[in-house]
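Researcher: I'm preparing a figure for a lab meeting and need a structural model of a single chain. I don't have an experimental structure, so a prediction will have to do for now. The sequence is pasted below. Please return the structure as tokens so I can convert it later.
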Amino acid sequence: MMTVCPQSPQRVLCVTDREDRNIDVADDAVSQWFKGTVARSTVTVDGLDQVSYRPGRPKGPLPRATLLGRFQSDTLDLSWGEAVSPCDDAVHQRRILFVAGEYWVIEDRLIGARPHRYDLRFHLTPDASCHAVAYGGGHPAVWAPGLALVFGAPHKVALQHGRVSPRFAISESAPIVVVTEDETCDARFITLAAPLAAGAPLPRMRVRTGGQAPVTVIEIEGRGRQGRDVVAWTTGGDRGPLGIVAGAGRAAVVRTLTDGTCVTWRVDGDAPSCQTWSPNSRR
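Model: Understood. Here is the structure written out token by token.
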């Protein structure tokens, strides 16, 4: 549920959830086994999928996914939703920002009544097999052909073997990025997903605000001539002051180019959705 599928102009880069409809093989037992694993999950809680798979009609309560909002401008797209599973007490909230048609910022919040192990999962494409590299430490990231995944906190990051199904009855080996927080009631994952040119360094991301702040603010650098982006959104999804721009909105971006020119974008704000000023402009 709550899938996002980052793409470059040339190809799909990764997905955060695999749907069932393409996953099938000649051996029905193998097919049912595969569908019953966590191979297609966005997030697992204590190793469990958001819904238990069974062949035929489902029995018992089903997970519920709710779109909480979507707002768009010419250069900034914001959507967020919530998923509740009958398999555990945790609520999964996801927010996705698509910035200037260039990259994605994905915020996942898991809210539980008791401590859990949360595993956030990104399914890479088959061409990442034997090539993807995970970097740990204080600034974890994953490099894959054409893709950078950069994480905003020192989570545990690992690569696991997985499979994807690009077409019906066709299954291919592909790695899965697993990002983990353990023994915690609540967890927040902020992920930068950006296309990456051959030979380019990984971009950098810094989260300025804590998990309980009313506004989440991050900085993104190292994306070449784009300079530095400061991205902010209201944590609760409501409209309010964002701090990085004047006035109110639900999300905004301030881009400082290498020549000092600044550009701002916002959604659901009380000012034009795009403004530009240079160091030599009058104030």
